[in-house]
Design a protein that fits this description.
Elements (H helix, E strand, L loop, with lengths): L3 H10 L28 E2 L6 E2 L1 H4 L5 E6 L5 H12 L9 E6 L3 H11 L8 E4 L4 H5 L3 E4 H4 L1 E4 L2 E5 L4
């Protein structure tokens, strides 16, 4: 039992890591009233089909739903199906699901979740993560996903904001 005391002292002597990790600037998460980033970086179904959500929401309302990964367990079994099956989906306006994935993966995932295309939910890939970074909703996930991914979020958009 005496071997535990030195280990405990060493553990207490180590400085704790900062909660913010290596960030030298404060986080700037998307805020209420902030305009949607005007970027032509999101892709729907193929690399040639760019979607600009700032343009899509210029005169429309709706939601942007962010997920860490297409085909992930929770997102596939609960998160996105809860939107697909929501009784008020038709009144929600335009709904986009965004993930840091390529457009082919997002298309395959949409076909798995909504094979009959019964909803108007659109699935967009953010292959470089540029849209996700512009919203400051990304996180580093090298161990699990191999790179930066988007947090799980839902943004209500009204008049482009």
């Amino acid at each position: 039992m005496s071997f535990r005391a030195p280990i405990r002292r060493i553990a207490l002597a180590r400085p704790a890591l900062a909660a913010r990790g290596f960030h030298s600037t404060p986080r700037a998460f998307v805020r209420v009233g902030q305009e949607i980033p005007n970027l032509d970086v999101l892709l729907e179904d193929s690399p040639g089909n760019k979607v600009n959500l700032a343009e899509e929401f210029k005169s429309a309302n709706g939601y942007i739903v962010g997920v860490p990964a297409a085909f992930s367990g929770t997102c596939s079994s609960k998160h996105i199906p809860s939107y697909i099956n929501h009784p008020k989906l038709k009144q929600a306006g335009q709904v986009f699901v965004v993930s840091v994935n390529d457009p082919f993966v997002m298309k395959a995932w949409s076909e798995q979740l909504d094979p009959a295309k019964q909803t108007s939910i659109r699935f967009l890939g953010d292959p470089t993560g540029e849209f996700t970074k512009a919203l400051d909703l990304g996180f580093e996930a090298y161990e699990v996903f191999g790179g930066m991914r988007g947090k799980r979020y839902a943004l209500k958009v009204e008049d482009g904001k």
